[in-house]
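Support case: user asked for a sample of complex input and structure output to validate their parser. Sending the pair below.
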Amino acid sequence: MSKPIPEEEYRKKPLTRLLQWVGGEIDPFLETMETQKQQNQKPNERLIRKHRRDLDTVISMVHDQKHNKVYKLFRRFYKVASVVCCLALIAMLLTAVSYLPPVGAADNPSSNEVAAKYIEDGLQDTGAVNIVTGMILDYRAFDTFGESNVLFIATCTVLILLRSDKKKDKRQEEAEQRREQHYEPKDDSILQRITFLLFPIIVIYGIYVILNGHISPGGGFSGGAIIGAGLILYANAFGFEKLNRFFTEKTYKWISFVSLSFYCLAKSYSFFTGANHLESGIPLGEAGAILSSGLILPLNICVGLVVACTMYAFYTLFRKGGF
Amino acid sequence: MIFEYILLIFLVVCAISVSFSRNLLNSILIFMSYSLVMSIIWILLESPDLAITEAAVGAGVTSLLFFVTLKKIHAMKEEGETDEQADS
């Protein structure tokens, strides 16, 4: 049972006083401390000049090679030490290399039964005519997943480093624009005409490389890089405003998120079934057809999308510090 | 065979001249040609996968990023600007 207390007593309780102090209602230093109004400080020109002169003398004395013996010695020691360090590093690396097995020897640890297995059973296991893609996206799919994530994380890091959200003032902005126009003339008709012809061809070639990754050389990474290069060309010729109509930061985020999570789920499923010796239920199809080799085609598309977006995102981040 | 040797010699010359070129813009251009020659060599070594990637990433995107970085750090000189102004 709490009994009621008068207001005076309540005000004197430490908890109440603390709350009041935190809330800014009372100032505990008010009328208990002697305060003085701050005076405008006048810089003492003579003293500043003297200090600066002293600093200059000290610097010139330190870097004076004729009179400063220690400095001279240190410079010489620095040069010798750099050469010695370089030579030591070269010697260490060369000794490390000399322990490696010779290139192309038959009994190298790299030429074991794994390579033979990939080449012999690759077509049967993965259904991909292109063994390289079968290896990257089926046997070693987990590595490729890590690589795609590394690309995504790299974009995030560049975003953190280069992001510029602060508003520039008008004069700075004009100077920037003048510089930009000097380096890349806006509305260059030659560049625009060439891009008009080349951009569809580049993108279609990139899509072709991605879709035929399991049949012919190429795959997600190469095709994605080609599409990314095409997007950069388009941005250069027509400016970012035109590209932002169909490719914004939101698009980038969603494409990366959907591709990476689909990759993760699809591969988790096949790892789960493979580890438990279950039938995955994904038909391998007829080797050589576009719609074949099970999960490789969708995974290729995912990797291609992530790579294309990453390439373009790098470029925009370097150029503008944002999308 | 001779063609391969010519390409390899060109590769070595490019690699050395990148580090000895004084102008940063020139070294990027040399680096670009290095990547192009490298992609031809990948085709000769029968790995077209790598050749496509090298041409797109090495010669295209990387050099572009280098150019943009040079512009960002104001290392490319404007026309009519003397060396002293550009250095300061």
